[in-house]
From TrEMBL:
InterPro entries: Phytyl_CoA_dOase-like (IPR008775). Transmembrane segments: none annotated. This is Phytanoyl-CoA dioxygenase family protein. Its cofactor is Fe(2+). Keywords: Dioxygenase, Oxidoreductase. It comes from Sphingobium agri. It holds the Pfam family PhyH. PANTHER family: ECTOINE DIOXYGENASE, PHYTANOYL-COA DIOXYGENASE DOMAIN CONTAINING 1. One of its GO terms (molecular function) is dioxygenase activity.
Length: 420
């Protein structure tokens, strides 16, 4: 069976290891559609504890997996790597021989001894829960927030999220973040950087901006804003680890994405080593569908994707857009939870250059515009702690030293060609 079919068969939640054990090496190698991306010059290499699963060796020997797993629409390939990689290596089923033409890889080793073990445990637990719940679904009445959410393990969360945090040592910004799950800095981003980016962005014909989730890979002017060094330093001081950019939202209208916590869309081991930035490129009108958020909601339990997905049909569960589909019940549940706790959501009515950083567990939304299509000029960036993204192993840096994850996805519309 070609390797991608194996990934597809995993959509039915079967573990595929037995299925591909007898597969001869050649046919796996033959199924590699494209070469493994070449190594960029500036990658991080950290020492690997000796007895840990050697993720670098595993991926080096399985270029089919590396390639597929580096494309975010093929989450199954990544799941395969996480779920079965360790077991396979132990059993000697894989790694297979390295094709001689394969280029050297610059994968970062994982220094956290427990991280891979934890990932594997969490994935197995998720699958067990899904199948157990399937059989009980018929008896369940109304869905509540409690049924979809779980307390987080604060011992593995960032330092400012831990009960044990010594508040007397915090800066005012850190204390505010700990209490509220967001931070606003007025007129923080220099207007000349914003103007240079806006000139490029304005060439894009779509109000939704780039389809590509990583346009920063190609557009220097975007990196200059989304990786503005003082902002990166600030974020690092809130999360407790250097952060790397891996997603930009470039629409100039509201996403109109209803209430959610970003961290519930992440692999479980991210556990709030995550933040996002909302940078106003112009003054934001109250009619344009401003960013809205619930202060303090980062301390609530976290919606869990496997629990939300239990209430979807099997077809919907494996759909790439499952989180959007699940809004049909998640929206009402989030609204109920917000009123039950009696907290008034806030709006970010920003002026040009204002910055809002929010926590991965903060309940937020892009509100519905009162005036349809009214411009809402923002650049949104999403970031994770560098050591927490085993699925994004290659880190690059701007000349100023800010980190972003090397993710190989086509840009689509090229603004530089449009200008020529
Ligand atoms: O449209 C918005 O402001 C919300 C965007 C959002 O939810 C996100 O970037 O995570
Ligand atoms: Fe979000």
């Amino acid at each position: 069976m070609p390797i991608l079919d194996i990934f597809r068969s995993k959509k039915t939640m079967e573990r595929p290891s037995a299925a591909f054990a007898p597969e001869p090496v050649e046919s796996i190698a033959d199924s590699v559609a494209e070469p493994v991306p070449a190594q960029p010059a500036n990658i991080l290499v950290q020492p690997l504890p000796r007895d840990l699963f050697n993720s670098r060796r595993y991926l080096e020997n399985n270029p089919d997996l590396l390639h597929a797993a580096s494309h975010s629409d093929n989450f199954d390939a990544y799941e395969h790597y996480v779920l079965t990689g360790h077991g396979e290596e132990l059993a000697g089923i894989r790694p297979r021989s390295v094709p001689s033409q394969s280029p050297p890889l610059g994968l970062r080793y994982h220094a956290d001894e427990n991280l891979l073990e934890r990932i594997i445990d969490l994935e197995i637990e998720k699958r067990a829960l899904l199948s157990a719940w399937d059989s009980r679904l018929q008896d369940i009445g109304a869905i509540t927030f409690d049924m979809l959410a779980e307390d987080v393990d604060d011992t593995t969360a960032p330092p400012l999220d831990r009960a044990t945090c010594d508040e007397s040592r915090l800066t005012p910004d850190q204390k505010f973040w700990r209490d509220n799950g967001y931070l606003i800095k007025e007129n923080f981003i220099p207007h000349d950087l914003i103007d240079r980016y806006c000139e490029i962005r304005a060439r894009h014909p779509s109000k939704f901006g780039w389809d590509c989730p990583v346009p920063y890979m190609y557009i220097e002017e975007m990196r200059d804003v989304s990786l503005y060094p003082p902002m990166m330093k600030l974020m690092e001081s809130l999360i407790g680890e250097e952060m790397g950019l891996h997603l930009n939202l470039t629409g100039w209208v509201s996403t109109e994405r209803n209430w959610h916590q970003d961290d519930y869309l992440n692999p479980p081991y991210i556990n709030s080593w995550y933040a996002a930035s909302w940078i106003a490129l112009d003054d934001i009108s109250a009619d344009s569908g401003p960013f809205e958020f619930v202060p303090g909601s980062h301390k609530w339990p976290l919606l869990k994707s496997h629990k939300v997905r239990m209430f979807l049909t099997p077809e919907e569960r494996s759909h790439t857009n499952w989180s959007k589909i699940s809004e049909r019940f998640v929206n009402a549940i989030a609204d109920e939870e917000i009123s039950r706790r009696g907290i008034a959501p806030k709006q970010f009515l920003a002026k040009k250059g204002d910055l809002l950083i929010w926590h991965g567990r903060l309940m937020h939304r892009g509100s519905v515009a009162r005036v349809q299509d009214m411009p809402r000029k923002t650049l949104i960036g999403h970031y994770s702690g560098l050591s927490h993204r085993i699925d994004m192993p290659i880190v690059q840096r701007t000349p100023e030293g800010s980190a972003y994850f090397h993710i190989d996805m086509p840009l689509g519309f090229n603004p530089y060609e449009a200008a020529a």
